[in-house]
Amino acid sequence: GQSLEQPSEVTAVEGAIVQINCTYQTSGFYGLSWYQQHDGGAPTFLSYNGLDGLEETGRFSSFLSRSDSYGYLLLQELQMKDSASYFCAVKDDKIIFGKGTRLHILP
Amino acid sequence: GAGVSQSPSNKVTEKGKDVELRCDPISGHTALYWYRQSLGQGLEFLIYFQGNSAPDKSGLPSDRFSAERTGGSVSTLTIQRTQQEDSAVYLCASSPSGGWAYNEQFFGPGTRLTVL
Fold first, then answer.
1. Does the CB of B101 have a partner CB in chain A at under 8 Å?
2. Which residues have a Cβ under 8 Å from the Cβ of B44 and sit 6 or more positions away?
3. Which residues of chain B neighbour A33 with C-beta distances below 8 Å?
4. Within an 8 Å CB–CB cutoff, is residue B22 touching chain A?
5. SS3 annotation, B26-52
6. Which of chain B's residues have a Cβ under 8 Å away from the Cβ of A31?
7. pLDDT of res. B64
8. Residues 6 or more apart from A47 whose CB is under 8 A from it?
């Protein structure tokens, strides 16, 4: 079957670095995307990886290894406003979102 | 407006009634998507439009669910004979072109549906 796995919760300290992992199992693959969603808000796009390697956008970076069916989102210099849920998403023959990782940030 | 809009923002209905949810995508965006999100859960894909046609409707949970898009713009999601398990937030997103994985999706604020 098709599935995406990501941790349900991660806790980190303000100013630190945190990595949110995503592993996927799909028969086909058209790229890995990451979205951020604050409580009560709509998801907003963070990044897309179609090829292996690291994509950097400001404090956020995303990595993909297609051979390992694995990717991660890296958040640096954490700020309290980064407290949110983070979703990875993959398109195979069907669009699949992970269940999300809730990021808690401690002062 | 500049973003994706959805209406109504909240809808409370009785079991067995039909409901219509509306999505206005960003002007010029050819691709439109509907998702469903239950409390604390991920996004469940429902249907995808490219223009007025729906190349991927694989996520519609039952034949009580249908969607259409007219003029390559506004889309409506209709749920007939609503059930309590249909209660969720229904999210619409649009993007400038299809092949969603290659393009950023812009989400609307969602419609919170409660079926009593």
1. yes
2. A97, B35, B36, B37, B38, B59
3. 101
4. no
5. CCCCCEEEEEEECCCCCEEEEEEEECC
6. 101-102
7. 97
8. A33, A34, A55, A57, A60, A61, A62, A73
Please name the residue of chain B whose CA is at the shortest distance from the CA of residue A47.
B104
Cα dihedral A104, A31, A1, A102, rounded to 10, equals 10
Task: Give the least confident one: A31-45, B45-59, B88-102.
Answer: B88-102
When CB atoms are compared, the residue of A41, A45, A98 closest to B42 is A98
Q: Which pair of structure tokens corresponds to residue B90? A: 């229904």
Range of lowest pLDDT (B34-48, B57-71, B94-108): B94-108
Which pLDDT belongs to residue B95?
85
What mean pLDDT do residues B60-66 have? Answer: 94
pLDDT, tens only, A63-97: 999 999 999 999 999 999 999 999 999 877 667 88
Strand partners, B12: B114
- Please list every residue in chain B whose beta carbon sits closer than 8 Å to the beta carbon of residue A93: 58
